[in-house]
Design brief:
The protein is mainly alpha-helical. Among the domains are: 122 residues, Peroxidase, domain 1, CATH 1.10.520; 42 residues, no CATH class. 45% of the residues lie in helices and 2% in strands. Strands 1-2 form a two-stranded antiparallel sheet. Helix 4 crosses helix 5 and helix 7 packs across helix 12. The longest helix has 15 residues. The chain is globular and about 60 Å long. Pfam families: peroxidase. Keywords: Calcium, Disulfide bond, Glycoprotein, Heme, Hydrogen peroxide, Iron, Metal-binding, Oxidoreductase, Peroxidase, Secreted, Signal. Its main location: secreted.
């Protein structure tokens, strides 16, 4: 309860522009004196990219999530070396994109304030600002993360799109996140884009008998088959109505048994996540933006490096 109350305080003071420390060592306005234009620079470059290509908002949000779930929010997903051995080369991350945005932001910051702003903080801010560009919620981002020096492909064990509710809850609990965070952060799939290969089994051969997943709406299965033939791996949007706009419509899709992934559909298998979904549907997402902001603040604190741990990379793809 104390942590929850502190996060509420962080959000409130962030709106008011007041600096506050978190016990884990992050601060609002952390760069106020060493790089006062840092957040404005991040915002300017991010807006340039995402305004031109709105689908980058989902990509950058996904990158932040994938980073935080492996070794914490330390920018380790950004590392390239040793080649083919770091997190970005793991199978779930091969479709991650948006690295050019992070690199452009970091380059702009290095020109203004060399060696000051970490790549981990850049990624946290870029994810937030990208969502805002497509009319999503704003949330305060306490800063002061340092960059990890280690990135291993073998350590990437993310929540799977094929996972059931028990496995998903354990993944989130292991990172200090709860059941509500699970369903709220799943709502980001409203702007999500995937590939046909991820859903082939669910719509063509779910139990090995040329059948589809019975938890899926049959009309939705037919629509997906029209989009994805068995040999196809084209892209497919997770919420066709709002792929370019951050809103709560994802929950309407899930309630109608039109979740693209098993990890979406299984949210109806748990009383708490199911209740949240139906509440958002009934109230047109009345609390979703606030809830999402709160869960994103929590995500940003997962296993962070501060103080003398880690480093401030000069280039996000390489350790110093």
């Amino acid at each position: 309860m104390a942590i929850k109350n502190l996060l509420v305080l962080v959000i409130l003071l962030g709106v008011l522009g007041v600096s506050v420390a978190h016990p884990k060592g992050l601060y609002l306005n952390y760069y106020k004196y060493r790089c006062p234009d840092a957040e404005a620079i991040v915002r300017r470059v991010t807006v340039q990219y995402v305004s031109h290509e709105p689908s980058l908002a989902a990509a950058l949000l996904r990158m932040h999530f994938h980073d935080c779930f492996v070794r914490g929010c330390d920018g380790s997903i950004l590392l390239k070396y040793p080649y083919n051995e770091t997190e970005r080369y793991a199978a779930p991350n091969l479709s991650v994109r948006g690295y050019e945005v992070v690199d452009a932001v970091k380059s702009a910051l290095e020109r203004k304030c060399p060696g000051v702003v970490s790549c981990a903080d850049v990624l946290s801010l870029v994810a937030r600002d990208a969502v805002v560009v497509i009319n999503g919620p704003w949330w305060p981002v306490p800063l002061g993360r340092r960059d990890g020096r280690i990135s291993r492909k073998s350590e990437v064990n993310l929540p799977s799109p094929l996972a059931g509710i028990a496995a998903l809850k354990k993944k989130f609990f292991d990172k200090g996140l709860n059941t509500k965070d699970l369903v709220v952060l799943s709502g980001a799939h409203t702007i999500g884009i995937s590939h046909c290969s991820v859903i082939h089994q669910g719509i063509y051969n779910f139990t090995g008998k040329a059948d589809s997943d019975s938890s899926m709406n049959p009309r939705y299965v037919r629509a997906l088959k029209r989009r994805c033939n068995p040999a196809d791996n084209r892209t497919i949007v997770m919420d066709p109505r709002s792929v370019k706009k951050f809103d709560s419509h994802y929950f309407n899709m899930v309630a109608q048994r039109k979740g693209l992934f098993k990890s979406d559909r299984t949210l109806l298998d748990d009383p708490e996540t199911k209740s949240y979904i139906y509440t958002q549907v009934a109230t047109a997402g009345s609390s979703f933006n606030k809830d999402f902001a709160h869960s994103m603040v929590k995500l940003g604190f997962v296993e962070i490096l501060t103080g003398n741990k880690g480093e401030i990379r000069k280039r996000c793809a390489f350790v110093n």
